[in-house]
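Two records follow; treat each independently.
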Amino acid sequence: MPVFDASSMIYAWDNYPIKQFPPLWNWIARQIEGKILVMPRVAFDEVADKAPDCGDWLKENELELIDINNTILEDALRIKGLLLIVGDNYHARGVGENDIFIISTARAHKGELVSDEAQQPGLPTILAKRKIPAVCSMREVAVPCINFLEYIRRSDEVFG
């Protein structure tokens, strides 16, 4: 099951406007309806804040939102520890608290994370500076992470 990060939904909304790409958004709506595409509530809140019209569209299409539960919270704390983040001292160039919740949500649902956060070709030596794709690729985390375009390519869907 693909679990969407806010970055991918906002990327899609900004780069493939619904008025110009209705077949794409009809397909996304079908993915939502079939509960194939889901989103952690913390990611949805980011979308609704940064792209309110996208948030409204997702609500209208009844996107399933995943709340943080004890399993997700415990795993998020474990990942936070792996990154050597103490308290609320997140690094400005690395993952934030919501990012860790999103990764943990994908792990809990054995899903693939769809995120358009930038890849880091040279991994930072300071673990707290790692972004979502780099954290997902850590052996102790092991969450498959793809971007929105890869998500579309893998679908083999033809929009036309």
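The next record belongs to a different protein.
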Amino acid sequence: MGSGKSSVGRVLSDIIGFPFYDLDDLIAQNEQKSITELFKTEGEVYFRRKESQIFREFITSNNHFILALGGGTPCYANNHELLKRDDILSVYLKTSVDVLMERLKTETTQRPLLANLSEEELKEYINKHLFDRNYYYHQAKITVNTDCKSKEEIASEIQSLLRM
């Protein structure tokens, strides 16, 4: 959350010409509710089930695309195993806690998992989640450090790694 998956994905889409999709948007479209509404009305367990279902359906029925996953997507329902497929290139946008704090502290009301957190609680939340999800994030085929880089620089770096 806050690493730039969606914004970098859109820029990368423009550079390489693959269509861009955001998994949260696909879920919201499918459920006809915002992610915030889904969390409030159905809860996180329901959301994670839907997330995995829609993720699996999408990657099996589409080719040549860029898909921004939610920060928790690889961590539930063995989704990280799907990201190991030979026909999928997964990218972890590694971002420091301090940078994530700066990006997220003004967005807590738009993000259901961050709503009502103080700055101190937000930092603790980020640290805990990065620690808990570290194993899954480091299973990505490519890791790109995002600190002090624009979304255009990050997308260009990913593009250059695609040519390898």
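Discussion point: The CA atoms of residues 27 and 116 lie 24 Å apart. How would you locate this feature using only the token line?
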